[in-house]
Amino acid sequence: MSPRPITFLSDFGLADEFVAVCKGVIWQVLPEVRIIDVTHNVPHHDVRSGALTMARAIQYLPPGVHIAVVDPGVGTERAPIAVTSADGRIFVGPDNGLLSPAVQVCGGASEAVILDPLRWGMEMPAATFHGRDVFAPAGAALAGGVPLLELGTEVDPAEMMPLLLPLCRQVGDGIACEVLWVDHYGNCATNVSEVDLEEAGIGMGDRVEIEWNRRTERADYVRAYGDVDKAHLLVSIDSAGQLAISVSHGNAARELGLAEGDSLLVRRAGSS
Q1: Percentage of the chain surpassing pLDDT 70?
Q2: What superfamily in CATH does domain 169-268 come from?
């Protein structure tokens, strides 16, 4: 029987040997396994960014074992965990909120363990590299068919550390919201959905006002970047279903000075 595929997300970057070392550990255990790199360019120590990246990607990844390592608390009391989701996927990583959004996308957690490397014959892990010493070998074992409960101590999956994300809210005639992430094109995704826009009376083709830091800009609400002229400011519903602020053939984050965590007010132009 072929092993389950493994996906791998981290903030390790590619300048050092960390990613290759983790893959080497996996391949030593399971040389025939297929490994898919989600990304290793999560901003350093940014658990929320890593969690949102995994949540956006998970429904398009093959069901298997999903290793995620963005672990600023490595070596502390935060637990290393493995979790089975309702749809049968297995998530491996630190219990710091990193896994929670993707697990919820997959129907929630049905089973969870705190990983114990000594239980499956590993040496005491280094305090600073659980990716190599805990998560990679555990992921390989699980992909090879080792039952979850053999790798650690069972815990209530409801006790997983959640990732608390801000909700948008109606404020007067607008929507108070936040920039959740900025992709490498400079598109600024918010926590506003298409339904939120409809409830605020904002429809496709409308002009909208975006306010932040005592600044106001106007943008067209369109379906695609090419629906406006080059260098024109626009808002659209992105591939994850969230309102995103973009500049056609440009970088909205750089040109507007926006960053993750910035607070915004979005309203239909002329409604104030």
Answers
A1: 98
A2: Bacterial fluorinating enzyme like (2.40.30.90)
